[in-house]
Structure formats: C-alpha cells, structure tokens
Design brief:
The structure is a single chain. The chain is mainly α. Helix content is about 75%, strand content about 0%. The chain has helices at about 15, 20-45, 50-70, 80-105, 110-115, 120-130, 135-155, 160-185. Helix 5 (about 110-115) runs parallel beside helix 8 (about 160-185) and helix 6 (about 120-130) packs across helix 8. The radius of gyration is 19 Å and the shape is globular.
C-alpha cells in the first residue's frame, strides 16, 4: 500500500481528516484501561492472577478476531518471523502477569504510577537494541521520570517489596515488547 506524500504541513492529506478519530480512540482506550485496572484490582482479592489474565484475554479475543476479519481475513496474520511473535507473546504474558500481580499487592495508584516508568525503559532499551540516539533533552526527561518512579516506589524501603518488584518487572517486559514490536513492524503488517 502506498501512502500519499506529505503536504507542506507535514501531514498526509488522506490521513489528516483521521486525527479526530485517533484522538477519540486514545481517549476511549485510556478510559477502558482505567476501568480494566480497577476491575483487576477488585478481582485480585478473590481470584488468582492467572485466572484474571485468562478471562481478560478470552474477553479480548472476539474483538481481536473481528479486527482481523474486517482488515481482510486470516491471511493477514501470516508472518515471516514466527519466533519473533512467539517471543513477543511470551514477553507480553510476563508483562501482563507481573502487572496484574502488582495490582494484587499494591494500591492501584502506586501500581499505575510505577508502570508509567515504561517509557523510560523503552527509551533506555532503544539505545542498545535499536541503535537509536537519545539527546540531552530526553536524558533529562528520563532522569526526572526515573526520580519520580523512585519517589513513588522507594518510600520506607518499599523498593524491594514484591509488589514494587512486580510493577518494575512489568515495565521491563512491556519495554521489551515495545522494542520488539518496533523491530517486527519493519517487515510485518500491524
């Protein structure tokens, strides 16, 4: 598929009218993830983490299948890199499991706040794994963000509590997933 060339404003004409849809999609996704996080926290008192993960994935499956069907069918999910997708799936399971376990052990606000450290991890991993350069402005933002995560995770020696470790592990796993997706997207369809 060829996309039209960018206009003088830097936005492709065919895609410019889709920005409101993109904004609305992000807002809806943020709301859905917030509700999901609250439900995970609520359910984690009475159910094992693996069971919550299973049913979350089961309920997401029809939506994923509908998206594949609308985009052109099962032929779209053929891949040249099955091992890359297997690794991505395993890392994604690790990320989901450690995040859900952190919700079980920590207040939801702390879990989410620590999880906001994921972009820091992605930036740090992009240097050795993707060969990207990070300028001083980004390094400054990384430092400030990292200090924020330490402030949230570190009071009273909590940095070594299992819930904090699980939330930080989730950041690492999601960071690895993001970098791997960036690599896979060079040759794979979304």
């Amino acid at each position: 598929m060829t996309l039209p060339a960018a206009s003088a404003g830097g936005v492709r004409p065919a895609l410019a009218d889709r920005r409101p849809l993109g904004i609305a999609s992000m807002l809806i996704a943020a709301a859905v993830f917030s509700v999901t996080n609250v439900l995970i926290k609520y359910l984690s008192d009475g159910f094992p983490t693996t069971e919550i993960m299973f049913f979350r994935s089961l309920f997401a499956l029809p939506t994923a299948l509908l998206m594949v069907w609308r985009a052109g069918g099962i032929g779209l999910i053929r891949t040249k890199h099955p091992m890359g997708h297997l690794l991505r799936a395993l890392l994604g399971l690790g990320a989901m499991g450690s995040l859900y376990y952190a919700f079980k052990l920590l207040p939801a606000t702390d879990t989410v706040a620590i999880f906001f450290g994921t972009p820091i991890v992605v930036t740090l991993l992009s240097i050795p794994l993707l060969g990207e350069r990070v300028g001083w402005r980004r390094w400054s933002a990384i430092l400030v963000g990292f200090l924020g995560v330490l402030v949230i995770a570190g009071p009273e020696g909590r940095i070594f509590e299992m819930g904090v470790v699980a939330a930080l592990a989730s950041c690492l796993f999601y960071g690895l997933v993001s970098v791997l997706l960036r690599t896979l997207s060079r040759s794979e369809e979304s």
